[in-house]
From TrEMBL:
Domain of life of the source: Bacteria
Protein name per the record: tRNA-dihydrouridine(20/20a) synthase
Organism annotation: Metapseudomonas resinovorans NBRC 106553
InterPro entries in the record: Aldolase_TIM, DUS-like_FMN-bd, DUS_fam, DusA, tRNA_hU_synthase_CS
Gene: dusA
Major enzyme class: oxidoreductase
Amino acid sequence: MDWTDRHCRFFLRQLSRHALLYTEMVTTGALLNGDHERFLRHDEAEYPLALQLGGSVPADLAACARMAEDAGYDEVNLNVGCPSDRVQNNMIGACLMGHPALVADCVKAMLDAVDIPVTVKHRIGINGRDSYEELCDFVGQVRDAGCRSFTVHARIAILEGLSPKENREVPPLRYEVAAQLKRDFPELEIILNGGIKTLDECRLHLETFDGVMLGREAYHNPYLLAEVDAALFAGTGPQISRTEALAAMRPYIERHIRNGGQMHHITRHVLGLAQGFPGARRFRQLLSVDVHKTADPLALLDQAAELLRGR
């Protein structure tokens, strides 16, 4: 949340044409009671694109799924993995793993409402409900409701005592549990998530799973995605350079500024583009600090681009 907004996704799409992109989690309340056009807004260049929903009321989720389909999204994903206290209090996220029948009802309502795929992202368990038998019970009930694609974060979520950040790091990764799930549910699409950082790891996991999801690594080291099309999708054409990727963002940034936006709304997402190169610190400073002080943000963008020249 607060990371993969529409500006971030537009940038990531410059790097990979084929990877499926996900929105940040949007709650049903935000769509039904708030500014739904703002939350659903996206550029057609972002496709293929999935809207990630948070909620637990079947009728509300069905209504939001219809909104997603009408807005052009390719998929609706129900988040049953977020461990934050804020969402738990509203029966959203990982706490729903303790209520598999409710999740099944939610999925069925969404599937009955739309023609696009409805998928579920979840943990391998939560504290107090972390046995493999309980995981199979959860997946089995949701499968019986019609879901055919599950993205499995291969950690349990500890719902008391750990922050969301700690829940992404402290509970150990257990890829073997997710692999057993694929063996026991071979008819389902099982996508692995959690701790994956390199394309070599992606290739290794794709020997077992139907897909892999990259989270933090794709954000902090975005140029990794530039290698994905050729390596994993048999893409054609030359790989885009870092310089070309930033140059492709310039017209988008110009439009955003003309429409009253600020450049840092966008450039905060490209800071990792210079990772590992001399000048990376200056690149980040220009686009995250100096950007707030300049009267000519596009000139600042051009300075940053010079630091990437030839890369």
